[in-house]
Amino acid sequence: MAAVGAADRGPPIAGRPVTALPSDEGLPQLAQAFAPENATYICRAAGLAPERSARIEIELMKHVPGQRATIVYTIRNRAETEQRLVGKLYRSKRRAERMRRWLSGLSTSVFGAGELRVPAPVGFVDQLHMVLHNYVDAVDLRHALNDAPAFALSASWLVRLHEAPPLEELRVRTVEHEITKAIHWLDQVTGHASMATQARLAAARDRLFSLLADPPRTNLTTIHRDYYYANVLWDGHSLCVIDLDQLRIGDPALDVAHFAAHLDVLAYRQTGDIAAYREQSATFVGAYRPALGAPPVADRLPIYRAYTFLKLAATEVTREREGWRDATEAMARAACGELDA
């Protein structure tokens, strides 16, 4: 592993802008991360040594404006050998250093080199607020829908996270906090639903307020909080879970329901039938078996399935992508179905 402070001792990062890159005033170092003259320096910060004649291709994989970006660096040497590196860039150095600590702690004390993993950090670029880790050569679960072991292992990964000692600096997200967010999303969605669904949403809103007044009992644990198919990578034998930026202390039932509800939404988008991937969902939920002593998650799953449907419906309203009205209606109805008394 490269020394974490190796980047600090190198030459200053250049600042040549990349005109083809989307501008992001809240993340000004994003353009610097794409500058060709910086690519070799970044790779060396991870312990890689590109040949003098190597080509380094740079690709933006994910971008949350003003917050963070995920970038892949592909090194192609003269013999056409290939090495890949992932750089996770953050708005602040503090957030980047915190993620480096989280990944280091999880990869050494909770998830090792076996079949359940997280990306281990291999370097740090101080000037860019960038954590570096090796590229994971795998596909997300959208491309493994027929691999039942992948869904069972996804549950095993989650159990291990939920039973792990809490990491430092994790914020707490109570049941009340999550229900309040669900009410906010419901209010965003209501004006875009059909009249019949609006009536059901009003009843769902009352149900959420009753839960807010008398929340269900749970033991709060470390949770992923964005656990779904796209963040679970499968290579046919092992799993690596990525995008740990929303790690919190919260209700473990949220992760279980979030994963299952996302499968329903994926089924709707791919097939038009929201129930098309219920077998995969049942495999996942059935394999989630935490240690005895914690309140069972089953009774809370409808709450958080509704939470997830409302979150995704509100996203449709915000983005207004093609077909968003139909998608919003379908997800709003699904949320209501979970909260029907």
Explained architecture:
The strands form three sheets. A five-stranded antiparallel beta sheet has the order 1-2-3-6-5. By secondary structure, it is of the alpha+beta class. It has two domains: 130 residues, Phosphorylase Kinase, domain 1 (2-Layer Sandwich); 200 residues, Alpha-Beta Complex (Aminoglycoside 3'-phosphotransferase, Chain: A, domain 2), CATH 3.90.1200. It has ten helices and eleven strands.
Provide a short characterization of the protein structure.
This protein is 43% helix and 16% strand. It has helices at 29-34, 36-45, 93-109, 148-162, 175-190, 195-213, 252-271, 278-287, 301-319, 324-339; strands spanning 55-64, 68-76, 82-90, 116-117, 121-125, 130-134, 139-140, 221-223, 232-234, 239-241, 248-250. The protein starts with 28 loop residues before the first helix and ends with a helix.
How many domains? The number is 2
N-to-C SSE string, H for helix and E for strand: HHEEEHEEEEHHHEEEEHHHH
Largest sheet: 5 strands, antiparallel
Q: Examine the coordinates and then state which fold CATH places here, giving the name of the CATH topology of the largest domain.
A: Aminoglycoside 3'-phosphotransferase, Chain: A, domain 2
